[in-house]
Fold:
Amino acid sequence: MLGRTANGLFWMFRYLERAENTARLLEAGLRMALTRDVTSAREEWRSVISTLGQRPQYEANHEEYDGPSVWNYVLREKNNPANIRQMFGAVRSNARIARTSISSEMWESVNESWMKLDAMLARPVSQGSVGDVVTTIRRAGTQVHGALDGSMLRNEAFHFARAGTYVERAESTARILDMKYYLLLPSLRYVGSSLDSGQWDQVLRSVAGASAYTWLNTGELDARGIVQFLVLDERFPRSLAFCRSALRDNLAALARIHGREGGSNELMRSADMQIANTTTDEIFEQGLHEFLIDYMNRNAAIGQAIGEDYRFLA
Amino acid sequence: MGDSSQNFDEMKRDDGSVRPAYTDYCDWFEDQQPAWLKRKNSEADESFRRTGITFNVYGEDEAEERLIPFDMVPRIITAGEWRRLTRGIEQRVRALNAFLYDLYHRQEIIRAGRVPERLFRNNEAWLPNMVGFTPPGGIYTHISGIDLVRTGPDDFFVLEDNARTPSGVSYMLENRETMMAMFPDLFSRVAVESVSNYPRRLARSLAACAPPKCEGTPRLAVLTPGIFNSAYFEHAFLADQMGAELVEGSDLRVVNGRVQMRTTSGYEPVDVLYRRVDDDYLDPLTFEPDSVLGVPGIMDVYRSGGITIANAPGTGVSDDKAIYSFMPEIVEFYTGEKALLPNVETWRCADSDSLAYVLDNIEELVIKEVHGSGGYGMLIGPASSKKEIREFRAKLEANPDNYIAQPTLSLSTCPIFTSKGLAPRHVDLRPFVLASPNGIDITPGGLTRVALKKGSLVVNSSQGGGTKDTWVLKD
Structure:
């Protein structure tokens, strides 16, 4: 397939994942804000914007961190170049670029979702409909992944799509964790305090892991458990370990299809070591923040190398 | 345009009885609940939007995409009518190819004094660097669209020959898919020729024109200007259906004397390039130096037998409206037969006698720019205000060579579905014609364009026209 088409597929799925993760973050923020007083609600909304790395841009355009301003900014505001409406537009343009490599079923599910969302986001989103919008975004992701799984050949197109998904997802989970890393440092002082369990709960919700975590840990919420779960638990599909091993499989499949390994496979081997033999203790010893930064750097380097190995750009 | 009762109604005779082409359809139509039909009609738009069959509109919001309105009443042609049409179309396309070959070689037709030399010498589509070169298989117009209009039971005329890169074939295919999805029982009651294998026929026809340097199975690619082009949907659709790569100029590069595309495993040669990019943009080294849509050096590869370009560069010289006026002579010159499909009577304003006639009768005529297309730059005398006519007359007098004039035809009508029931509207027809060394291949059907506004004669989608599924009945 064409390098440009592979690039289109990779980015189509990165943007899809990014839109979905951003929506989850918003959803977790909404839930938190509802259960807080006005001052702490403002904190929650600020933290949503911080996690997205958008504080300067947001503050240049808004004076307050209130719900409607934040969700409209994140969802649709033109002065936010990374709003969800734009992201979904990018999902669709990339799908159009890669149109000949995706099934009609997949194209139609992208196109339909885009039509629906674009209409929903054409006007400011009210308190009454923000929940619907977020649900629609999540469902769009689910539907497109379903079409990918159920209608696409397991050829290179499939693996480029999946590689985009996991590079983006890994980045997102790591970033959310890093924004809250100071809350997760093991400290006797906070254990069991309702403030922190609320924050932890939000972190889990942001990555759709709240109930999975509860199941695995029978309701115990502590820093060590959360780090173990979000970083090292290979059963959880948004954990750092899961994303890395899934990405490794996709890269191995691509190398097999092309009959050669490239820089991305090599980077993958050394990145694998970072996680394979690590324990929670070691992570805390090294420093959670330092561990996460290292993880994100390696992840970005792999993403870059995929583009070079498979000639995404001229 | 006059009284609408003077137009040929393709469905009904003057006494209200239904013509043979439409009898089965009308029987079916009578059996359907009007409310159900209305609901179906609104579903159609939804289905087109979902599949993304849209065209981009230039000059508007960048992301603006529009649907071409679809009318759910088919345009129906009998097997007998179609047979006669195809004979005429085939003859015409053969003549076009022979004419192009001749123009770029010995120019016998000019030596014989049948066509004046200035006609193509002044034509921007004339490419001097095609002179003396024979495209692989001797084919110039791999794909052409012959626009036909009808004025009576046996009266079909050619309105225009589209020999560059005719578009609209995706509508022929998708309109049929939509009709079959909406009305499956209809197709079990009426036997209609299938159009769905067009992409396969196109792939086969293009592969038959592989260049001398092609090794093994020819690799096809569709060259598009990119996702913002108005016909991008069609480019992607055709590539997908043919199993060809959809490439942009930036994907291609000349490597080892071949045009090669950048794939995930390196550069791989393209044998046949179905380009949907104009000649001017094809090769920045030969034509438009600033073009980023084309491939530097592709013309050299072409001339050395490394690639087939479809349609051949320089083909546009034949679909100029001034050349059109000579088509009866051209057909006769190369086939030795009278043209089976007549032209619409055409006055070349470059002739002073014709110009005088045109100026005297401007209110009754349709006047077109020689190089214009898409329904722009034309005057429909009977439908224009005094002011519009005055302004157009000034342009015409200033540059008569740039115009031709034709009578305002009483185009046939087909019914469309409206909230008040069926209503007649003017239509034209564009069949798609493939040419290869194996012969001329015409898919039974085509694109029917319909003027949705009552009385309007302009069928162009850019100006409020819609499309219909076109049926050729089986014998």
